[in-house]
Amino acid sequence: MKKILSAIIIIATGLLTLAGYLFREALSPVLALFTDWAILLIGIAGILGIGYLLRMHILRVAKKQKGNFYSIFLIIVFLLTVISGITLSPQSEYFKDMILNVQIPVEASLLGVVAITLLYTSLRVVRIQGWTPLSIGFLSSALIMLILNSGLIGFKPDSLAGRIAGFIQRMPVVGARGILIGMALGGLIVGLRVLLLLDRPLGED
Amino acid sequence: MTWSFIGWILIGLSAVLLIGFSFFFKNRGRYTVREVPGIQQLLSARAAALEKGNKLHLGIGQRMWSGLYPGSGLYSLSILPKYLDGEIRNSGAMRVSSGDGVLTVLARQIIQNQYGDRYSFLLDQNPVKSDLPAPTPASSTAGLLNLLSFEKVSSLTLVGNYGLESVLFSEALHTNAGAFFSAVGNLTSQAALYPSKKDLLIGENIFLLPVAFSGKDSAQPAWTTEDILRIVVIFIMVAAVVLKLVGLL
To answer: Hey, what's the torsion of the CAs at B3, B7, B13, B15, to 10 degrees?
Structure first.
């Protein structure tokens, strides 16, 4: 019964949402209601998620698991942020400075680590993929894009060289669109499989 | 005829093809399921990890919702029940994590539902867990790297929304001598991982993953429909380019 009910809810919601694109005016109140319910559910789930995070770290401290020092630090900073956010309000300049002056440098340092790791892994491309046309194309296109986008070579926009450079610079967008179209097709099929009951995403057999 | 109308024709065509092929393949019995090297590698790595009693980890994304990839959060959740087979449920040798509280809560619901169908989740001494290492993408990256290191994870699978940070997870698994697999639905992550990983799932292939896990043959109608749609879309695009060149569009 539970499975049938969940299947009915999935199909009804999916079909109504799909029909909403066809009959916008007639179905807009229903779609707005669905959206409100979804936002409410997501909001509550978000708060519960934070609760799980705290519970996990409290348990780690209580069980004296490896790395519990980081959990103690996380709990203290979390409580400090919540209490100061409630007392000062998130709009407070002092609160923003206190949080952002920590958050931004930490995130920037993480990005620095990512950049170095990306450079290192890019250099391994031939070792991993071998000397294939794809790996050679990947490396050479990365190099060409790096040179063109660095601004080291200047072209007049109306000149032939400028137009060729512009054409080459647009090539990654073409590739990205191709992959996105493929993903859209895959997503369409998955959605239809659910609506036609050929697939049950919640795992019921 | 507008682009929107063409879109509706494609949706209708897909539905008709899916239903048609489902009946066609049902009557014809079993057939060969397409083999994707990346998925085969993942399935072998997963089996090997379970045999050795090692830990598996499934990352289901940093965000539930993304403007550019709206369905990928929900899609990663739909992969979870397929990944949780009986062996994994019984051994509890898997952890699920995300960078978004909503994803974590929904994942936990799915996991409990999987146990609820068979036996109580609460009575199990060592159930599969769903964690939120930290509440933002950047902090979650640091949290997950920490988890991978402490728990000596030997197989990591990423699905859903990840960014450039996925390359850090890949390197962490490389250091642990573990197996890394990605079916991330995000171009940035796919591009970042491409140089360091051989068998990535990119584009529409990421949608093959749930079927590969479940081992059912019901994928054939979907794959056949997808192949036909690809050709139809290519024809439409070529026709549009020709019409544009001629000046009719």
So the answer is: -170
CB atoms within 10 A of CB B249: 10
- Cβ contacts of B22 on chain A, cutoff 8 Å: 196, 198
CA-based nearest residue in chain B for residue A44: B102
Interface test with B, best of A65, A183, A195, A204 (most B CBs within 10 A): A183
In chain A, which residues have their Cβ closer than 8 Å to the Cβ of B171?
A: 117, 121
CB neighbours of B150 closer than 8 A, spacing ≥ 6? A66, A67
- Do residues B54 and B94 both lie within one domain? yes
pLDDT, tens digit, 9 for 90 and up, residues A92-125: 888 888 888 888 888 899 999 999 988 888 887 7
By Cβ distance, the residue of B18, B168, B185 closest to A183 is: B185
Closest-approach residue (CA) in chain A for B214: A203
Asked whether residue B61 falls in the same domain as residue B22, the answer is no
Residue B4 maps to a domain: no
ipTM exceeding 0.85, yes/no: no
Question: What is the reported pLDDT for B73?
Answer: 84
B220 touches chain A (CB under 8 A): no
Most confident of the following: A21-35, B111-125, B135-149, B214-228: B135-149
- What is the predicted pLDDT for the residue at B59? 92
**What's the rounded Cα separation, in Å, for the pair A179 and A191?**
18
Is residue B65 domain-shared with residue B118, that is, in the same domain? yes
pLDDT digits (tens, 9 = 90+) for A70-91: 889 888 988 888 888 889 888 8
CB contact under 8 A, A53 and B80: no
The candidate with the shortest Cα–Cα distance to B175, out of A43, A14, A75, A120, is A120
**Residue B116 sits in a domain of what CATH number?**
3.40.50
Query: Which structural domain range is residue B233 located in?
Result: 9-30+217-249
